[in-house]
User: Fold this.
Amino acid sequence: MRDGPLPSQLLLAATLLLLLAAAAAPARASVALAAAPDARLASPAAAPPAAASTSGAAGSAGSSDGAAVFRSSAVGAAGSRAVAGQWLVTFRVNTSDVKAAAAAAATASTASATAGARAASPAGVPPSSAAALQSARLRVQADVKARVMRSTGAAQGARVARDFSRLPVSLVNLGAASAVEALRADPSVASVEPNRYNFRQLGQSLPLINQPLAAAQGFKGAGCAVAVLDTDLGSCAAPGDPEPCRVAYAKDFTPLDDGAMDDDGHGTNVASIVAKTAPGAKLLVLDVFKTDKSGSYAMDSDILAAVDWALAAKASGTYNVCAINLSMSSSSFSATQCAGGAYDSAFAAARAAGVISVVAAGNDRQKGALPSPACVPGAVSVGAVYDRNSSSRTWSKCTDSAPAQDQVACWSNSASYLTLLAPGAVINAGGWSMAGTSQAAPHVAGAAAVLKAAVPTATADEIVVALASSGRRVTDPGNGITTPRLDVAAGVAALKAAVPPTNGAPVDSEAPTGSVSINGGAQSTTSPDVSLDITGSDKAGVASMCVTNAAVSAAECAPYEPFTVTKAWRLADGPNGYRTVFVFLRDTRGNTMAAPARDTIILQAPAGVAPDTTPPTGAVQINGGAATTPSAAVNLTVSASDPSGVAAMCVSNAAVSAAACAPFEPYAGLKQWRLADGGDGARTVYVFLQDAVGNTMATPVQAYIILQTPADAPDTAPPTGSVQINGGAASTNSTSVTLTIAASDASGVASMCITNAAVAPAACAAYEVFTTTKAWRLADGANGPRTVYLLLRDTKGNTNTAPQQATIQLDAPPPAAGPSPAPAPSPSSSPAPSPDPAAGPTARLVINDGAAFTSSRYVRLSIYADGAAPRTTRMCVSQTAASAADCPAWPSFSSSKRFKISGGQGPQTVRVFFKAAAGAAGAAARASLAALPPAVATIRYDARAPSMPQADMQLKAAPGPGSVTLSYAQAATDAESGVASYLVASSKGLAPPKRCVPPPSGKSQVRSLVRQPSGAAAAGGAGAPSDAVALGGLSQRTDYAFRVCAVDRAGNVAPGVTVVTRTA
Assistant:
């Protein structure tokens, strides 16, 4: 097929073939647009599987049934296919970089104009204008792409096969799985997805949607263009249409033009529906399908290329693209909106440019989920209804018995976040009769053009809100979900009422008003699962809402979701009592309610709750949302909500799946975290959330920050620290003891020297790697006091001038009668090896600075080996290799390494083997390296929070005037690492805090154990000691709720137990 405006010869031939009235060809566009490159793809495509079977009832001659549905899934899933070696890479573009680039461009433009030179962009354009920001975004986007491909891409042998200049996406050839993972680990890469095959299965209305009324009022979409991504167009209008053909441009976006105009009429039918709904709009026919002996299919990359072209056409002013129609869907379903990936970036870019992406919901009879790309947040998803009463219809998936007008088709997919319904069964257009959501979507795409032409200043969000708020509400009998059905005339009226005129009237700055009612205003409920009725009013239109069980500010409330008038909700957990639900409303102009609408109900729930199958929702911030950080050590703020309560989370520096993320740890609103190692640059943290019944997020929430490490300040201060013998015990009956060492230093504590005698720092001979625990032997001799001395040294070489020390009383029993023992070692000997040239080279491994426990599978290894260096030494780190011969890989030696342990709960042993690198100089050096023994260390992995049975904890509250005294038994148990401490959290009202947040948040306080347990499993249980905490400074005669949580030695925080009381 030929690119560009259609020549009159082609139009005339198509018209004659389909017995259409002669139509004048459109004028050739004066500005030629460069479409995405049509070069042959470098990697050979795998043979596509057979197309899916058709569904639906028979139509007229030449008809087919069902929407054009893409059948695709990720590589590795059952039945999936993708182009071998080709991947869609979505790049991350930082908003702060865009704003900085826009400001720099504005400064340069002004300076150039002042100097009398011709400015590169119009002088005086503010850097915050939409045009300036869009231009800057494209420049930054191109820079990010180039930078990644020069660094990570070049290192992995990657090559760009196809670029999409208006989107943060490129099609990249990658030769190995390791290259894919390397790109995914790059902080400037948001996602890496396979370039999938997409297969089609085949899939009156105007009066129902009040299109004739809108047209009679003059609203026909004139001045707008609609891009139809489909199977091309076999004619320029429906049979007998007297209007001139309105196809302004046509192009085949497949790498090899198959030359077909329309193989089965699907594209003709879809484009004709757009033409009828918006009779004044131009059509841009973008063929993304390829047909061969295997069937008809489209590639993700071809679809994205067409979207990219449409945005370029919009930006250049060649065509005023108002909407894009995608009558297609995949086999990957999501019960919630599927954020992330190439389609999400593409639709977001389109929405930012004022282009609405309309997507068919699909015909799979899914009544609780939508497929991709309809599930993408930026998509306007469309389901199908009957446009008139009909006799019973039997489809391949279901049967509709005598369906009535406006009844949702049984095969039409649906979910709580479905945007609109429109006629889709059965539609006659362009000489073809078809049924499916493929036919419903173009009604909405055409309507979007009509509304944009009616109110040219309206934003894409305002148009979507007007369409969704004005249509007749129709309930799907398959799931009870109510969704607005398209009404073009009502949509125009709603939009004209919402969008202020452009005659100098003030810009809307008023927030919406509204209300919320729980269970229709009932006073009480026996179930925490309730229904909310929400009203909202705003002259610009209510766009979104945030529902919460907590009294928070509008800025703190998350997430904001599309506004709906009904919503299923779960009240806050806890004992029976009052429950309040808060709702913030936000309009299309961004104005948000300062104070939420609210309603209160009394929960009188019996035992047992309804099953919950929905994963949590949430968000994460790094250092409170800061743009940069000088340190890799950061604080994460994780907000989350779920009907069953959020139980666990998994935090990662890598973009992995939920199944690959480890460990899942108890949910905490505040977590200390270390960003990925490496030099300065962008870092991303990913968080998966899991609720109390096991539902886990399919796509993580994520946050982004730039690491900018400042130049090292001079450090001349030595470390500070302390040492304890046997946990601070007063006496011991054995010279074999355990030392507990604490230390801190601005540059990091590197080494220590321990002796039984007081010596000067320079005289202490056995400096060793710093650890927090160490087995030690006290000085021999008669019973009496024994002192241990500790000297610390930091990474800059600063050493204590005076040692830390601890003393214990040795009270050993007299030796039994028998042979005289061997001479005892001198007091200076210790388990730390003394320098001994005859003993050979030594190696040592320390995990997490000598910590005994870890709750994360990712640990930090410190490796020390005599004579080892990166150029001369290779090492192998393994948990499974028993000897060097078992090692699969030998990277260069490094003194520090991030490592993922692979075993389950309990001790995890890591071994490091060494060998000389090929070409290492010197026979003696090679022999020394060959003689290095493996370094071995063990740490206990514990990802389970302590157990806290409510009855065993005996939590009680004694109120006083403006105070409460809590008492509880320290009965929590933890079999792996033992209970270390307790956290006490409080909140005003009847709803307890959802979790205990560790300090420094200020919302909790740490309670040390009354009696330190003697072993890992000794804390808690029967006979546990009691503790009491007095909390003052509270309001009098006010309800307060408290939560007490146990914390184990690995840092896991238990969900805790709660109590509610009222102060006197």
Remarks:
- The chain has a mean pLDDT of 77.
- DSSP finds 13 helices and 59 strands in the chain.
- The longest helix spans residues 130-155.
- The longest strand covers residues 189-199.
